[in-house]
Amino acid sequence: MEDTQWRTHRLELDDQSLREWDAQVLAADPDGIVLDRSAFYPGGGGQPPDHGVLLWGGVQTRIVDARKGDDLYLIPAEGDPLPAPGTTVRGALEDERRTALMRTHSGLHVLCGVVFRDFGALVTGGNMEPLTARMDFNLPEVPAGFREAVESACNAEVLADRRIAMEGRVAVAVGPGQGDSVVAELDLAAGEVFRVEDGSVDAAIALGKQLRADSYEAVAGIGGGKIIDVTKFAAHMAGIPMVAVATNLAHDGIASPISSLEHESGKGSYGVVPPVAVVIDLDRVRAGPPRMVRAGIGDVVNNLSAIADWELAAADRGEPVDGLAVTLARTAAQAVLHQPGTVEDEEFLTVLAESLILSGIAMTVAGSSRPGSGGDHEILHAIDQLFPGAGTHGELAGVGALFCTYLRADRRLFGLLSACLARHGLPRTAADIGLSQAEFGAAVRRAPATRPGRYTILERLDLDESAIAGQVAGFAAAVASGA
At what angle do helices 290-301 and 303-317 cross, to 10 degrees? Predict the structure, then answer.
């Protein structure tokens, strides 16, 4: 029997926190009482029914059960008085029982999710009472250490304080470029589309306020780097999970815990909660400008320079290095550095996409951008500030990484990076991004100020203007000669 066929409006489906309400009796006999409005949950899905009372005419009727039939019947305690049809009553739930049942039910969902995720087992049955329950799973046999592993994993999920969605309200953020075509392809009957005009802090804050004010439970950002960064920031602000759906591979921010956003003084990096899932639409990637795909190559291989700077900081200043983060970032860079083919090839695009995601995960593990950002990104940010539009994020990251590798006198890595950038048609020198050597030198001089507190080869050498000019000239010559 569908809920809509009952005469009772089920208030608990509208507001799970409701504990008291007024109602009118539609029918009453020893088999049950029918109200026009009720918040008594009748049981189902393994959860027992609510208990409570009906108050009327100076007396009370205890409700000890609720059952589904051709109507929603509230079962009175044996011997309690029955209100006549037409009587106005005050309904009240037993709050302690309802709250305990809700907690137990939510805990069982955590248990089911953990067992399925970690052991691949589905639920076959179970039952529950307030704060106690049993679940059955289709495990051929109980693995050694099963109880301890499940207990530990469930506790970790509870401590993560994840949001419990109740209505399934999902928002989708798209940009001005591909936004209309993206929306046209999606069935968004259950979601609302927000169009983000730019990649600014103001746009991110405005979206975050909308998501929070309208109680959305999740948001998907569909588009390029600007849309994903804005949506990550907005989701973090609203305290809801975010899914990144990338339509280009221009940089490694797809899965990272960082949003790069524009403000009145340039660009800033803001720590955020990373996406809970990442989808990359390779059809749209292929349909986009090849330059945007190639740019991602520069942002991935730059990891090798960033790692070298991190290790330099460890050697010179004792800065802790996260070994797992380094492994993830290095693996991502090496995969692209040595992958044959071009951005026209499906296999190459897949490797690039996986490497960009892996780079973002490396930053999450490290708790900072260190695995993918060293002196290379300091130079990148300085160029953005001094010469806006000189190149894309990934292009500038590649040039910065190659220059910093030259400063470290790592000839082997310099040769590998230079060959990779050249093979994919990416810029390698100041001239390739439309800057003079003097302009590039000015950016190098400014670079350390863009990230105070970060120690890289630039901070170690602390070059003056004359020394920078000499290094920039030598760098250009080394690239030209293939040294």
Answer: 20
Cα distances from 365 to residues 176, 273, 322, 374, in angstroms, run: 33, 12, 8, 17
Is residue 443 within 8 A of residue 386, CB to CB? The reply is yes
Judging by beta carbons within 10 Å of its beta carbon (0-12, 13-18, 19+), is residue 172 exposed, middle or buried?
Answer: buried
Q: Is 445 helix (H, G, I), strand (E, B) or coil?
A: helix
> Residue 135 pairs with which residues in a beta bridge?
126
Tell me, what's the pLDDT at 167? 67
289 half-sphere exposure, CB direction, 13 A CA radius: 9
Ordered by start, the domain boundaries in the chain are: 3-93, 100-159, 163-288, 290-483
Q: How many residues does the chain have?
A: 483
Report the alpha-carbon distance of residue 80 to residue 28 in Å, rounded. Answer: 12
Residue with tokens 């799970």: 16
Q: Are 126 and 108 in contact (CB under 8 A)?
A: yes
Instruction: Say yes or no to pLDDT of 168 above 90.
Output: no
What six digits make up the tokens of 469? 């000019």
CA separation for the pair 41, 363 (Å, rounded): 45
User: In the prediction, which pLDDT does 379 show?
Assistant: 97
Closest-CA residue to 279 (of 314, 238, 313, 249): 249
H-run or E-run covering 60:
strand 59-68
Predicted confidence (pLDDT) per residue in 120-132, tens digit: 999 988 889 999 9
Report the predicted TM-score, pTM, of the whole model to 2 decimal places: 0.68
Render pLDDT for 265-304 as a digit per residue (tens, 0 to 9).
777 788 899 999 999 988 888 888 888 889 999 999 999 9
Confidence at 188, pLDDT banded by 50, 70, 90: low
Amino acid, res. 9: H
Look at residues 357, 349, 375 and name the one whose alpha carbon lies nearest to residue 457: 375
End-to-end CA distance of the chain, in Å?
A: 78
Q: Interhelix angle for 465-481 vs 393-407, to 10°?
A: 100
Class of domain 290-483: mainly alpha
| Distance (Å, whole) CA 407 – CA 468 | 10
User: CATH for 3-93?
Assistant: 2.40.30.130
418-437 pLDDT, tens digit each: 999 999 999 999 999 999 99
Q: Looking at the domain 163-288, which fold is it?
A: Rossmann fold (3.40.50)
For 206, 254, 445, the CA distances from 231, given in Å and listed in that order, are: 11, 11, 33
